[in-house]
Automatic annotation (TrEMBL):
InterPro entries: Bact_transf (IPR003362). GO terms for molecular function: glycosyltransferase activity. Residues 5-45 form the Bacterial sugar transferase domain. Keywords: Glycosyltransferase, Transferase. Its EC number is 2.4.-.-. This is Glycosyltransferase. It holds the Pfam family Bac_transf. It comes from the Bacteria.
């Protein structure tokens, strides 16, 4: 799934960003939040996605 927090939010158009946010809200789960946190830590350690 595409979540702008870990998928290069600066690379998304406004429409894609809104769509990702809506998808997150409509499909929220604790497991998904854990997955996002895991991916975020990985991106930070790899120094990816920040401009």
């Amino acid at each position: 799934m595409l979540y702008r927090q870990v998928c290069g939010r600066s690379d998304l158009s406004r429409e894609e960003s809104v769509r990702a946010d809506l998808r997150y809200v409509e499909n929220w789960s604790f497991a998904m939040d854990l997955s996002i946190l895991r991916r975020t830590v990985g991106a930070v350690l790899r120094r990816e996605g920040a401009y």
